[in-house]
Amino acid sequence: MISIATFKGVVKLFFKLLLFAPIPLFMIYTSYKIDPSGLFWGEGFERTASEYMLQEKYILGYERLDGRKLNEVYAKNVPEAPEVLINGSSRSMTISKNIAPNKSFYNCANTGGDRYDFFNGYYVFAKEGKEPTTIILSIDPWLFNSSHEAIDKRSNKELYYEFMNKELGFTQYKYTPTDQREKYMALFSPSYFQASVRYYCRDTSQELKPEPVVGDPHCQTSVVKCPDGSIIYDVSFMSRTKDEIDNDLVATANPNQALLRMIDFYELDPVFKDQFIAFIEYLQKKNIQVVLFLPPYHQYFYDFADAHRDLYQSFFDVEDFCTDTAKKYNLKIYGSFNPAKLGMEYEDFLDSFHMRPTSAIKALPVLF
Q: Could you give phi then psi for residue 14, rounded to 5 degrees?
C-alpha cells in the first residue's frame, strides 16, 4: 500500500512535469503550423498561392505554379470539400464558378491534362476526406489514346497507380504506400522544430512569390489564377487578331502533321474505357453526381478532322462512346467536339482548342 508521503511525492512530481508540458506542446504546434518541408500544408510557391486563393484573392505568377501540386496543397488546406469539382485540360481551365453560383466550386483542370490527371484531380480531394457532391468530367479525345504522345510528363503517375489499385481495384498497378508514421514523428523532432524556426525567420526579400492582383483581374499582362481554381487569360492572348488566330488554325490543323495528341490513335484504348466506366460506377456508389462535358473545338479544326476521317475516326468515336455511356448510366452530358451543334462561331474561339470564356455558356450552362 502506498504511503501518504509517497503519494504526495508523486503528486508534486506530476505538477512539476505539468509546468514543462507547454514547452513540448509549443514545439509540436510550431513545427505543425510552420511546416518547413511541407509535410502537412504543402510547400513553397503553391502553398502561398493556395493561402491567397482561400482568402478569395486573384493571383499573378500562374506561369511559375505547378498546377498539379497546387491542387494537392489546396485540397489539404481548404476547410471543406468543394461541392462541385471539374477536371480536364487547359480546354476547361476557364470554366468558373459561374456555372454553379449557388455552390462552392473548384476547377482542378491542368495544362496538358492527361488520363492520369483525369483521376488525380478527384483523388487529391478524396484522400483528404473532401469529396464533392458533383463532379464534372471534362473529356478530351486524347484521354482514350494509348500512345505515349498523349501522356504529359508533369502528371503524377504514382498517385494514379494508388487510386487504380486501392480504389478502383486494378491490381496490376503497384504502388508503395507512404509511411505516415515518419511524417508525424517529425512533429516530435527537435531538429524539425529548429528548422521551423529558421524557416520562419528567414530573409524572404529575394524569394519569388505569387502576388495578389491589383486592379481588374481581366486586365492583366499575365495569366491570373482565380480563387475557384479557374484562370483568366492575359490581355494579349484575349485580344489576338483574326490573322493571329488564322495562323494558329493553319499551324494546328494541316496535312503535314498529326492533330494534337492523336498520333497512332486508331482505336479507343480498351484499358482506359474500362477505367472510365469503373470510375463512374465508383462515384455513383458514393452518391456523387457525375456530369460529362465535351469542350468544343474550333470549326476549322473539327472540319479538318472530319475531312480526314480515315486518319482520325477515333476522334469522333470518343464523343459517341461518351454519349452512349451517359445514356447507360443516366448521366447529364453537355457540349460537343463539334461547335456547330452548340451554335458556336469563329468569334467564340481564341485558337483551335480554347473557347472564349464568355462563350463557354454555349457549351456548359449554369448547372446549379
A: -60, -45
How many residues in the chain? 368
Better pLDDT: 249 or 22: 249
Strand bridging mode 211-212 / 59-60: antiparallel
Q: Which of 184, 211, 229 has the alpha carbon at shortest distance from 75?
A: 229
What the block records as the C-alpha cell of 210 is: 505569387
Which pairing describes strands 231-232 and 224-225: parallel, antiparallel, or unpaired? Answer: antiparallel
- Spatial distance between the Cα atoms of 155 and 13, rounded to a whole number of angstroms: 55
Query: What pairs with residue 85 in β-bridges?
Result: 106, 135
- Three-state secondary-structure class, residue 272: helix
- Separation between Cα atoms, residue 246 and residue 230, nearest integer Å: 26
pLDDT digit string (tens) for 275-333?
Answer: 999 999 999 999 999 999 999 999 999 999 999 999 999 999 999 999 999 999 999 99
Kindly state the average pLDDT of the residues 177-192.
55
- pTM value is 0.84
Q: For cell 471534362, name the residue.
A: 138
Summarize the confidence of residues 84-109 as an average pLDDT. Answer: 97
Q: In degrees rounded to 5, what are phi and psi of residue 147?
A: -65, 145
Q: Is the dihedral of CA 253, 258, 261, 262 positive or negative?
A: positive
Residue whose C-alpha is closest to residue 228's, from 85, 367, 112: 85
State the pLDDT at residue 27: 55
